[in-house]
Amino acid sequence: MAKTLEISHVPPYSDSSNSLSDFSLPVTFCDTCWFKFPPVERLFFYSLPQPKQTFLNSTIPRLKRSLSLTLQHFLPLAGNLTWPRDSPKPIILYIPNDSVSLTVAESNAAEDFDFLAGDHAREAASFHPFIPNLKVSETGASVISVQITLFPNRGFCIGVTCHHAVLDGKSTTMFMKSWAHICRSEKSSLPPELTPFYDRSVISDPDGLDMLYVNQWLEFTKYKDPNPFQFLPSLDVPSDFVRATFELSRPDIAKLREKVSSSWNKAEKLHLTSFALTLSYMAVGILKATEEDHKLATKKQKAFLAFTVDYRNRLRPPVLENYFGNCVGWLVNYEDLREILKDQADQDALTVMAATVSDLMKKLEEDVMEGAAETLSNVLAALAEGIRGFSVAGSPRFGVYGVDFGWGKPKKVEVVSIDRTAAISMAESRDGNGGIEVGVVLKKSEMDVFSSFFLAGLETHV
């Protein structure tokens, strides 16, 4: 648990001329596709053996000031997602004196720092006290919320909750790196790669997908909650859910690639990227770990494969890498993964799953906008049927372990919200070995099965 010490509101630095006037952004179809998805919640753990008063008198003011300086570059984050009466669609609006909610808290058990920042199985709900909420009303929703929690003489964690209809994971990481850069350098300027690009005209939408998606969301939720800004209800987090982290090193991935390649006897070439192999290996393990519950369930729950891809370099013309907002799209295979692996021997399951992931990734060679009008409606239809989407939060390409505020890189980064979305998380290995770190949330009994599979599978395949 954590005790709240202070709740404040941090505005963009007031000496900036930009922060003294309104700033608005229209939402694009890449944003409205996520209009009511639950927020994304991340935790960054940092080792810092400071006593409480030193942390409160020195570190917190430094973090607050650098956050304020950073927000002058990221005004939309201090604003709200809203829908003015004279606007045909929602907008992101900052007006002077808008701010970001910042909670400062203290853990009731400082010794839990190393426990929470570990890789072993930990109760999933134990991370919730360190995550702030977004403010939602009938007139709008806040964009981000921040909580800094002290573990005296051990370290601290920064919890960031982000509205997915405003920014994707790449933009979130760019903001965190910008805040860390300004805190570390004690300068208010940003390098070009961290300076957000706001021109929405680079996202072409001749078919009006932006409002098509908004209307599909409103239709889907009209009987659940009439508030247009209310999020889709999240899954409950049972008390027996645990969270653990697994790492595939670069040699592990190379040998998985060799295993799949050697057992693939078709002329068609597979896309065996590190991401594809990691996703395939984890999917096989999780399906195996949850098989017993699936057999016992009265209503069999299907599982489909879904992940997002960055559109920045795939749209025509391409979009700048520092584009702020959402610029991602879905790749989905609605076939039941259990049926795909049915009757497959354990040693063949990885190859079959890798081929399934590869087929999805080959769609990136085509026009990524093909079929976009049906993308959201198909996903919502699957959710309505109770089909579980096996998806991925985060990416090894984000570089989250590069978010250094001046006290070293994070000891651990967690995507807390995967415990409500049934996704796994991915990040680059924190030791920089070129591997991939994967976060998994399962029932305790299922995690035991998965852990055994993960280790035994590496011995077998690797």
UniProtKB/TrEMBL annotation:
Keywords: Acyltransferase, Transferase. GO terms for molecular function: acyltransferase activity, transferring groups other than amino-acyl groups. Gene3D superfamilies: Chloramphenicol acetyltransferase-like domain. InterPro entries: CAT-like_dom_sf, Plant_metabolite_acyltrans. Transmembrane segments: none annotated. The keyword Aminoacyl-tRNA synthetase does not apply. Pfam families: Transferase (PF02458). This is Agmatine coumaroyltransferase. It comes from Morus notabilis.
